[in-house]
Each structure stands twice: as structure tokens, then as C-alpha cells.
Amino acid sequence: MNKNRTFEERWPYVVEKLKEGTFNPKAAETMREFIEKYPEYKEPEPIECLNLIMRREYAEEIVRGEKKIEFRNVSDFYCKRLIDPESHKFMAALPNEDRPKYWFGWSYLRPVQRIHFYNYNNTWSLDVVCDGVEVLNCNKSGLEWLHLFGCHEMDDFINEVMRNPNEVAPQFFALICGNIIERKNI
Question: Which residue has the higher pLDDT, 7 or 140?
Fold first, then answer.
């Protein structure tokens, strides 16, 4: 049961990233405050291994250290895989004044431990540690967030979206690729 577990017990990966200086301290404080206010909250169920089909050229970019983030559309298919329904339901039931403050990816996105990339005929594969799952908004702050990772592959697309403010901006799941665990034929 999650009730009365401390921030450190609930999110040890956040504590580790805070020590490394790779996690926003303000976001961590918001998470800590949320747990104190809502101790009955249950964290999203983690995904041990997320299997994703990928073009070989992108996998090779990950191997060379050129690609740090993999993007997937926020579609029904990926929402069913990456959003924890119980956590999402809990967050949706929060009082209106608390929703904008606490409605972040950590509150309803399932943490992924490892990503297994492969092609359709499974002639190669690449497994990497997943250092996080975020929802990327196609706006200035989303672009700045990507640049923290040295990621510029979405620059043209996001800038085009920002030039059309009357259009509904798409969102993407951003899967942060960490160390290589295993690779086959790549």
C-alpha cells in the first residue's frame, strides 16, 4: 500500500536525479507537497519493458549518441500504453484549484524502465534504459526543454506549429533514452 510512504520511498529515481543535479528541484518540491496533501495517491504502475518498432537509422543514431529522445504521438494507442488509468482517474478527481498545480506527467504517466526498439522483421534490436517519459507540448517551453538534451530534431516542426497559433498544437510522448543495455545486429 502506498499510503504514508515518504517522497523518497515513492520516487527514489527522482531523489537520485536530484543528487546528480538532473532534476528540477522545484518540480521535486511540488511532488513532495502533493504527497503530503494526498497520501492516498497511488503512483502509476511501471512498465518493465516497452517494445517499440523503429527505423534502423534512428536506432543507429541512438547507438552513436546523436539521438537522446524518441517521440510518439499522443494517440489512443500510446495513451493506453503509457497512461496509468487509476492514477489518471485520481488526478482528474482532484479539486479544480489543485489540478493545474499537480497535473504533470509524473502524476499519471507510467515510468518505463527499459525500451526495446526493433524492426518489423526483428532482424535487429536495441535495448536502452529509459530515463523518463514526458509529454512534449509544441510551444516555446517544449522547445527549450528539448534543447536541454541537445535535441533539435523537432525544431522546424515546433516552430511551424508556433507560427500557426489558431491551430490545435499536437502533443508527443517524449521517451528519454539512457544507456544502452543490449544490442543485436546493430
Answer: 140
